[in-house]
Design goal:
mainly alpha; elongated; 131 residues; 0% strand; 8 helices
Length: 131
């Protein structure tokens, strides 16, 4: 799976093996062996390739079909998710209703602030002083 993913990703960004090898600081010969399945890249090279292509090492190795690594939750997000999962259906529905309401309110406020900025012209000092 690794060699197919390496070939596909390299071709997708229209790079030669030489260019890619130079970019990740290995020889073209070494990279060619990885892409042709004659050698396995060391851990450091796998990490470099994943960072270069902005994919996970798991994706390169074929352990997942999701190119992007999973998001890392903050401690607060993890706690909220854990508490949400512990709720029954009624609790989850109520929590989601509040979340949707608050998020919609946030979007409306954000849109209004952006519209207000667009209507104010720098040439009009009276409008700027009234804000």
């Amino acid at each position: 799976m690794l060699l197919e993913r390496l070939k596909t990703l390299r071709r997708k960004v229209n790079l030669s093996q030489q260019d890619l090898a130079r970019d990740i600081h290995i020889s073209r010969e070494a990279y060619s062996m990885y892409e042709n399945g004659h050698r396995q890249p060391p851990y450091e090279t796998l990490v470099s390739l994943a960072q270069y292509y902005k994919v996970s090492v798991d994706y390169l190795l074929g352990l997942t079909d999701q190119p992007s690594p999973a998001l890392t939750l903050t401690e607060e997000e993890f706690k909220l998710l854990s508490e949400f999962r512990a709720l029954d259906k009624r609790g989850k529905d109520a929590t989601l209703a509040v979340l949707h309401f608050e998020y919609h309110h946030y979007l409306v406020q954000k849109k209004a602030a952006q519209a207000k900025k667009k209507t104010v012209k720098k040439e009009d000092p009276d409008i700027l002083n009234s804000l």
